[in-house]
Amino acid sequence: MIFLKTKRLVLRSLMPQDVDTIFDYRNNEVCFRYQKGQAKDYAEIVKMIERRRADVLSVEAPFMVAVALKETNEIIGEIVVKPGADAIELGYTFSYRYHRRGYAFEALTVLIDQLHRMGPDRAFISFVEPQNIASMGLLRKLEYRDMDCLLYTSPS
């Protein structure tokens, strides 16, 4: 299921053919260095995809989004969304093969905009290791503010 589209990307459900790519980037030191609790075992990733492939865009229940290139449908990353009563937590991992090309910014911008329309009173939170300079920069570009964790509040 396709959730959202941008100029270069499709935000969609996870699919069985995503397993090899997810396994590749989740087991690359550049990608897993700052990740906690992510499945890295091939069989665990297969199970995760099966569990998450029916997820839907929601501000009421957790879900996972595959970020894929529009032209090829190849997954290049994933975003996990965990809604709470007052805030929506976002976590993301993008393949080391696609870092520093603006894909994460593009995907998160459209997703945050859509979720804000669905839950306008909610703030957005992302927890980031202080050493993860690239992710901190991305979140600042998305207008998060540093509050010992990073907190995004949408413009009024």
SSE inventory with pairings:
Elements: E1 2-5, E2 9-12, H1 19-26, H2 29-32, H3 42-52, E3 63-69, E4 75-83, E5 87-94, H4 103-118, E6 123-126, H5 133-141, E7 144-146, E8 150-152
Parallel strand pairs: 5-6
Antiparallel strand pairs: 1-2, 2-3, 3-4, 4-5, 6-8, 7-8
Helix pairs in contact: 1-3
Account of the 3D structure:
This protein has 156 residues and is of the alpha+beta class. The chain contains five helices and eight strands, in the order ββαααβββαβαββ. The chain has helices spanning 19-26, 29-32, 42-52, 103-118, 133-141; strands at 2-5, 9-12, 63-69, 75-83, 87-94, 123-126, 144-146, 150-152. The protein has an eight-stranded mixed β-sheet, with helices on both faces. Helix 1 crosses helix 3 (42-52). The longest helix has 16 residues, at 103-118. The N and C termini lie far apart (31 Å).
Overview features:
156 residues; alpha+beta; globular
Secondary structure category? alpha+beta
Our count of helices gives 5
Secondary-structure element string? EEHHHEEEHEHEE
Provide the residue-averaged pLDDT: 90
Q: How are the strands ordered across the major sheet?
A: 1-2-3-4-5-6-8-7
What proportion strand?
A: 25-35%
Largest sheet: 8 strands, mixed
* Helical content band: 25-40%
Weakly predicted, low-confidence segments? none
From the spread of the alpha carbons, the general shape counts as globular
| Quaternary structure | single chain
User: Separation of termini?
Assistant: 31 Å
The Cα radius of gyration reads 15 Å
How many beta strands in the DSSP annotation? 8
